[in-house]
Specification:
The structure holds 3 protein chains of 3 kinds. Chain A is of the alpha+beta class. Chain A has helices spanning 2-21, 48-58, 73-84, 97-106, 121-129, 201-213, 222-233, 244-249, 259-268, 300-311, 313-321, 329-335, 340-344, 358-376, and strands spanning 60-64, 87-91, 116-119, 133-134, 155-168, 191-193, 254-258, 275-278, 286-294, 325-326. Chain B is mainly alpha-helical. Chain B has one domain (49-254): MetI-like fold. Chain B has helices at 3-35, 46-53, 57-89, 94-106, 109-119, 125-128, 132-156, 159-168, 173-184, 186-202, 205-209, 215-222, 227-254. The radius of gyration of chain B is 23 Å and the shape is globular. Mean pLDDT of chain B is 83; it is low at 255-262 and 266-272. By secondary structure, chain C is mainly alpha-helical. Chain C has a single domain, classed as MetI-like fold, CATH 1.10.3720. Chain C is flat. Chain C has helices at residues 4-7, 25-35, 40-61, 72-77, 80-112, 119-132, 136-147, 152-159, 174-198, 202-210, 215-244, 247-253, 260-268, 277-308. Classes of the chains: A alpha+beta, B mainly alpha, C mainly alpha. Chains B and C meet through α1, α3, α4, α5 and α7 of B and α1, α3, α5, α6 and α7 of C.
Chain lengths: 377, 272, 310
């Protein structure tokens, strides 16, 4: 029947298109550089020099979800590329922690799979539990507090920051210094978060910090939700997602975000907006991100070298340059290897810094998921 | 038809067009103004210059264009015969095909891509690791729009009459399809192609999760550096796609020969 | 004879011979295949590239994180916090679908009155193609710059004496999102509805007028029945389009107006909640169910109105 001819043509066309559309075929996944895939420290490979050699032999590193203006990752990547001559393939800079985990899981075996990941705390723990991360202890592993690393080195805190108030000094004449300040009527329609607290880490931290400032605790995040509900009712809080564009256009003259991200705004908006940062005096909330190596990394030696670089003095000082707090800061300050000028530029923080436990964190997230839209809607 | 009423109709038509024009242009102009802002409250082209200096513009644009044309070709090859056949032979199946076509729109891309990654995990990297997978999946993403456009076009013509006339004059089935059906549903086919092209040139979620370097992905990563640049780059992508579609509509318009005696559907075929 | 009989179920008498009773199964299967051969490429293609991923999603909805079968994701998806977001999503989608469909149809008809192959038509159809896919953060920002608290239109209106924000309007709420959604709904309507409008022959209007029909009678008996089915089909498309839109609403309200796709995004691609992807898939399944229900209502309405319009 003639009609089956059309079907045949259609089928052939699909096949032809599929074949001709593949310009370059993907290369085979490289064989793991002799043992680098299972090395748990540089010593396993015979020392740092051998690690560098193995990494150079691999020639490439796949990273994911590392925006250039996030904790100075742009400069860190450039410095790494220059120092070791490796090519770095950057994927999905806007990706979330969940996206990173999904990429590791689902691109397993492909040459494009991520080698290293930079995850939020809960995600790092979950990834380690699922066996996605490789244990590795960097040379400076001992400098890091036990509470900030997995004992086997599956994940290690790399840098962190505090929730801070960023404000446009030219539009906001009275600088806010605390959560209590933000309730003042002169800030009507000016305060914004970085996103939805059920999705964006900085927004979630903002609510937690507000809870701490309003009689709550790590066990009780509800006062934070109530604070924002009141702030929205009074009109001070607008639910729009803050970004460099909304700050520059003047729509969000006051934002709550990580201090190192606020620093990014200051740098980007020089000449257009006089952006200043203050860590609120009444609600101090800090969080660290966690670095991990994928167990199925296509470039295992390069992945481990990247890890070594990030935790070296040079890498940690570059994080500091982005106004984030590198995890080895206490030990580096003691040893005098920290860059003093950069240290002085950090926003002042009053009070001790404590972290919620995983159980407290999970409970708080559940409350946020249940209560946020209801309270603010 | 009396002359005054035609004039009244014309005035009303232009009023409507102007009102809609204002609604659509004002937000665009606001974005343009923002993209032209410079330090110290001046205006200049600095964001646009920075944008055009960014590496990757040409490469990602070419990649996206190839993906777009591949998607349009594959969609038309797949859907025009299918929808025509359904209209001609099994009209009762239209609802089924419509339902299937609507499915890609209902599932958020972020959920769909999860499924795609799982299903195609073990497929050779030649397909799952290159933009080919994008072509294959974009055909699906565009399905709701392409089906609707083609369905509308085919409903508006007297398909059985045309086909019967052509067959009785000795046309083969491919000839019927290409030389009789398609020319009569031109606007529907172009609508489908337009929607397809615009979708591919603007689709970000699937491409970024699959870690592909397409134009929309480049747009977002370029926009990170500065606010002015991010707005400028999104305007640039709109402009590029608009020009593409406009050129397409001009090229095909020139070959358009008025169908001077449109075949009106005959009232009775013995079916009600 | 009404026009309806031609357009509704226009089909040629089945050329296949009346089935001979009690044919052996393989022959019947073969007959079914050849009888439906036009549909096979479509079914095969969607089966592989759409059906399989959807199946994985549905499967995931019924599994917990270790792959064990469970219904707890489904029950969680029906809890209060998600129930409200389904309602809000449906309201927003229905509203913007109707607005988009009505205004889009008006715009499409206005454009068709201009010269065919003229500049206006080309510009409008190209612009519609572009804007139908315009969304997310850039669209949100364009409207922030226009109707935000310091947007140019807001400022202009305040200068004229209408302070809309003082009057209770906010771009960062339900009404604001609806206005922004219509921005891509109208162009979509223009593209998918224009072919139907183009199918309206001038001869019919002339013939009706010659027979003495009034404008209302023309619409009631001729244009209406022809245009209503594609209008409703386009309406359904706009509904589904709005229902799954997410990035624009997120940029404007960050989840304060609860919408299902935003919640799915938090679960499946977020930075706060880990290990809840299957709940996200359950919500995705919920979205499919909602649209399936809306589609059945639409099919039922198509049947009722086609009978009513004779």
């Amino acid at each position: 029947m003639k009609r089956s001819f059309v079907g045949l043509v259609a089928g052939t066309a699909v096949l032809a298109l599929t074949i001709t559309a593949c310009g370059s075929s993907g290369s085979d996944a490289p064989a793991a550089a002799g043992g680098a895939a299972t090395a748990t420290s540089a010593a396993d490979l015979g020392g740092m020099d051998k690690l560098v050699e193995a990494a150079k032999a691999e020639g490439e590193l796949n990273v994911i979800a590392l925006p250039h203006d996030w904790a100075n990752y742009g400069e860190i990547l450039d410095a790494f590329k220059k120092k070791y001559g490796l090519k770095v393939n950057e994927a999905n800079p806007e990706g979330s922690s969940q996206d990173e985990i999904n990429a590791v899981k689902q691109l397993k075996g492909q040459t494009r799979a991520p080698d290293v990941v930079d995850l939020g705390g809960a995600f790092a723990i979950s990834a380690a539990k699922d066996g996605l991360l490789a244990p590795y202890k960097v040379a400076t592993f001992g400098d890091i507090a036990d509470t900030q690393k997995d004992p086997e080195g599956n994940w290690v805190n790399d840098y962190g920051g505090f929730i801070s108030i960023g404000y446009d000094a030219s539009k906001v004449t009275v600088p806010p210094t605390s959560f209590a300040d933000l309730k003042k009527p002169e800030y009507k329609g000016k305060v914004a978060l970085n996103g939805d607290p059920t999705k964006a880490g900085a927004a979630y931290a903002g609510v937690y910090a507000a809870a701490l400032a309003n009689g709550g605790s790590f066990d009780d995040i509800k006062p934070g939700v109530q604070y924002f509900a009141d702030l929205k009712k009074s009109g001070n809080f607008i639910p729009v997602q803050s970004s460099a564009a909304t700050v520059e256009s003047g729509q969000t003259p006051i934002t709550l975000d990580w201090d190192y991200l606020q620093a990014g705004y200051s740098a980007k908006l020089k000449g257009k907006v006089d952006w200043k940062i203050a860590v609120p005096t009444d609600g101090v909330y800090s969080n660290y991100y966690s670095q991990g190596i994928s167990k199925s990394a296509p470039h295992p030696a390069a992945a481990r070298l990247w890890q070594e670089f990030l935790f070296s003095d040079e890498g940690q000082n570059l994080y500091l340059k982005g106004l984030s707090r590198p995890v080895r800061l206490p030990k580096m300050t003691e040893a005098g290897t920290v860059d003093k000028a950069l240290l002085a530029a950090l926003p002042a923080v009053s009070g001790d810094v404590k972290f919620p436990t995983t159980a407290q964190d999970d409970a708080a997230k559940k409350i946020i998921a249940d209560e946020w839209a209801k309270a603010l809607g | 038809m009396s002359a005054p009423s035609t004039k009244g109709r014309t005035v009303r038509r232009w009023l409507i067009l102007t009102l809609f024009g204002v609604y659509f242009l004002v937000p665009m102009l606001a974005s343009v103004e923002f993209s032209l802002r410079d330090v110290n409250d001046t205006h200049s082209l600095v964001s646009w210059k920075k944008l055009l200096d960014e590496p990757g513009l040409f490469e990602t644009l070419t990649t996206s264009l190839w993906v777009a044309f591949g998607t349009v070709a594959l969609t038309l090859i797949l859907m025009v015969p299918t929808v025509s056949w359904v209209h001609l032979r099994r009209p009762k199946l239209r609802k089924l095909v419509e339902g299937i076509s609507l499915l890609p729109l209902v599932i958020p891309p972020i959920v769909l891509v999860n499924g795609v990654l799982v299903v195609f995990r073990d497929v050779p990297e030649v397909i799952s690791g290159t933009p080919v997978i994008l072509v294959l999946e974009y055909v699906i993403l565009a399905l709701p729009f392409t089906y609707r456009a083609l369905d509308a076009g085919l409903t508006a013509i007297a398909l059985p009459t045309l086909v019967e006339a052509a067959r009785s004059l000795g046309a083969s089935w491919p000839a019927v399809l290409l030389r009789v059906v398609v020319p009569n549903i031109r606007s529907a086919v172009f609508g489908a192609a337009f929607l397809n092209l615009a979708l591919v040139m603007g689709e970000y979620t699937l491409a970024s999760i699959l870690l592909m370097d397409t134009f929309p992905v480049w747009t977002v990563s370029t926009g990170q550096s500065e606010a002015g640049v991010s707005v400028a780059v999104s305007l640039l992508s709109l402009l590029v796609v608009f020009l593409l579609l406009f050129v397409l509509s001009m090229v095909t318009g020139r070959r358009h020969r008025e169908v001077t005696a449109p075949i009106a559907p005959t009232p009775s075929r013995g079916h009600s | 004879m009404t026009v309806n009989s031609i357009t509704a179920e226009a089909g040629v008498a089945d050329p296949a011979p009346a089935a001979v009773p009690a044919r052996p199964l393989p022959k019947r299967v073969a007959a079914w295949v050849t009888g439906h051969i036009g549909l096979l490429p479509f079914l095969a293609y969607t089966g592989v590239f759409l059906g399989a991923p959807v199946f994985m999603v549905v499967l995931g909805a019924f599994q917990d994180n270790d792959g064990v079968f469970t219904t707890e994701n489904i029950t969680a998806a029906m809890s209060d916090q998600f129930g409200r977001s389904f309602v809000t999503s449906i309201e927003l989608s229905a509203l913007t679908a109707v607005l988009g469909a009505v205004f889009g149809a008006i715009l499409a008809q206005a454009v068709l009155g201009t010269k065919p192959d003229g500049l206006v038509r080309k510009v409008v159809s190209s612009a519609s193609g572009v804007l139908a896919n315009f969304g997310g953060v850039p669209l949100a920002f364009a409207f922030i710059a226009t109707l935000g608290s310091i947007g140019i239109v807001t400022k202009a209106l305040t200068a004229l004496g209408f302070d809309i924000y003082a009057g209770g309007f906010s771009l960062f709420a339900f009404t604001g999102i609806a206005i922004v959604y219509v921005y891509f709904q109208i162009p979509l309507m223009v593209i998918v509805f224009t072919p139907s409008l183009e199918g309206m022959r001038d001869q019919w209007r002339e013939a009706a007028e010659n027979l003495g029909a009034t404008k209302w009678q023309y619409w009631r008996h001729i244009a209406g029945p022809v245009l209503l089915p594609p209008f409703m089909a386009s309406l359904l498309l706009l509904f589904a389009n709005s229902f799954s839109a997410y990035a624009t609403a997120y940029a404007l309200t960050t989840g304060v107006v609860p919408l299902v796709p935003i919640q799915i995004g938090s679960l499946v691609s977020g930075n706060v909640v880990a290990d809840q992807q299957n709940l996200g898939k359950a919500l995705g399944l919920g979205m499919i169910v909602v649209v399936a229900i809306v589609m059945s209502i639409y099919n039922w309405m198509q049947r009722r109105t086609s009978r009513w319009l004779g």
